[in-house]
Write a structure and sequence with these properties.
single chain; mainly alpha; 2 domains
Length: about 475
């Protein structure tokens, strides 16, 4: 649903708003991701703690949740104060719109931002902690469906306001009200589950609250740097190229992210299972999860990128209401960043799921520095293609670092990184991108690259399957059948 909302609502926004106003809307969302970083990182830290404890120790889950909720409310209050201070000191003027926003009032952007943060403080902070605790107790699917309902509501209602002639202020306030009402319904469903699972929220010890905030501070820095390379990259581009180019880059990146959204819908449910196998030192089962993620990359995401490269020259212009022209090489570079990121997912899960905080911070810092330096060098010369290249170089450095840390950690607990499977995945990914590059400048459909790609996929599937251990083959079938039945 998130994928559908991103793809199908873009023409509506660009039909009712100018590209500059739409760019302001995207920059505003990136600004909110930064504004809520303290509590979102705090939630991420505790999510991994809940997973490490697991469903066997309700007392430990209760203790963690009791400390996490008041600490999260404190951090949310600090976020609210920071937004107000940033507005009155005019810091927001340079962040929201990069100082180039003339189509949207900075006051309107502030009112939207402050309304979203108030809703976060009132309900979303508590919902985030409770949902993560209950997911660790086996209720992931239940709240994943709640997430689908939220994406539908929070996407369609602001879009309806825009369709009726509303601007950023009206759409933003509509989203805030939608989120607040949704969260109340969510809590009505979730709180009885806490009682049923014997999770008791008590007055926390001050020391535990402070300890959680202190440890999550490293996650804060890491997430700031990660957001800087993801949604926050718009904030970096904004002063360099302006809101219109930001909107153009974001729409091209949205197309490239189509495949990523599909994989993330599977990766989320697999994360608890991967951590369970790692904690149990189950080498073969762990490799089975690796095989599922990398197989989806090669046989799902790869063909999707190739097909979109063929279709987008025709579809993109109509999709963006003639606001932008499709750049095939920009799309290919952005797709390469997505592929590199997906290769790193198992290694990243090992590092994040075990709260290897110092390693995460070092990797994020190095990748962000590389991205900033590359952007400063490449954007003035290559414009948006240079921005995409900067992201690709940054992603490659982060991926190699995560894999290095994961290999060392797995060895320390008696497990092995699946080296042969990793090399096969890397080689197949490079070939997918090379074959996709053959059709970038094609103004008419040429069948030989298409046939070559199909032959490659069939050959890769056969070679990959016969080289999997028998136990991993069995596990792979079970997971595929389970996820197919759940659709």
């Amino acid at each position: 649903m998130q994928l559908l909302s991103q793809v199908f609502l873009v023409p509506l926004y660009l039909n009712k708003w100018s590209p500059s106003v739409y760019g302001d809307w995207l920059i505003l969302q990136s600004g909110f991701a930064f504004a809520t970083i303290l509590d979102s990182a705090h939630q991420t830290y505790y999510e991994n703690e809940y997973l490490r404890v697991g469903a066997v120790d309700r007392v430990a889950i209760s203790s963690l949740l009791s400390a996490a909720i008041p600490a999260g409310l404190l951090l949310s209050s600090i976020q609210l104060i920071a937004i107000v201070c940033a507005f009155f000191t005019r810091v927001l003027d340079s962040l929201l719109g990069g100082g180039q926003t003339d189509s949207t009032s900075h006051d309107d952007l502030f009112y939207v931002l402050i309304s979203w943060q108030i809703v976060w403080l009132l309900v979303q902070s508590v919902c985030g902690q409770v949902g993560r605790a209950l997911s660790a107790l086996g209720h992931y699917a239940r709240f994943a469906w709640w997430g689908v309902y939220y994406i539908i509501a929070s996407s369609l209602i602001p879009a309806l306001v825009v369709f009726l002639g509303g601007g950023i202020l009206e759409a933003g306030l509509a989203q805030a009200i939608t989120t607040f009402l949704y969260s109340l319904l969510w809590l009505r469903d979730a709180l009885p589950l806490l009682n049923r699972e014997n999770i008791v929220i008590r007055l926390p010890q001050l020391g535990k609250c402070i300890l959680g905030i202190t440890r999550s501070s490293l996650v804060v820095v890491r997430q700031i740097l990660d957001i800087l390379r993801q949604q926050g990259f718009r904030l970096i581009l904004s002063p360099l190229v302006g809101p219109i180019k930001v909107a153009e880059f974001a729409t091209q990146r949205t197309v490239a992210n189509v495949a990523l959204q599909g994989l993330n819908s599977v990766y989320g449910p697999l994360m608890p299972e991967l951590m369970r196998f790692v904690a149990g030192r189950q080498q073969e089962s762990m490799e089975g999860i690796f095989a599922i993620i990398w197989s989806l990359l090669i046989f799902g995401v790869g063909p999707g990128i190739f097909l979109m490269q063929l279709a987008m020259p025709v579809v993109y212009t109509a999709w963006t209401r003639n606001a932008f022209i499709f750049d095939g090489w920009l799309f290919l570079i952005l797709s390469a960043s997505i592929v590199v990121y997906m290769i790193s997912l198992p290694a990243m899960a090992i590092c994040v799921g075990n709260n290897l905080l110092k390693s995460q911070l070092l990797i994020a810092s190095a990748a962000s520095i590389i991205m900033l330096v590359s952007t400063a060098i490449a954007v003035p010369t290559l414009s948006l293609r240079g921005a995409a290249l900067a992201l690709l170089v940054s992603e490659i450095s982060a991926t190699l670092s995560y894999i290095f840390v994961a290999i060392r950690w797995l060895r320390s607990v008696g497990l092995q990184w699946p080296t042969r499977m990793f090399y096969c995945t890397g080689c197949a990914s490079v070939l997918i991108l090379l074959l996709t590059g053959l059709v970038v400048d094609s103004h008419s459909l040429k069948w030989w690259p298409v046939i070559s790609f199909i032959v490659f996929i069939i050959g890769a599937a056969f070679i990959g399957w016969v080289n999997l251990p028998m136990g991993v083959q069995t596990q792979f079938r079970e997971h595929i059948f389970k996820h197919v039945r759940s659709l």
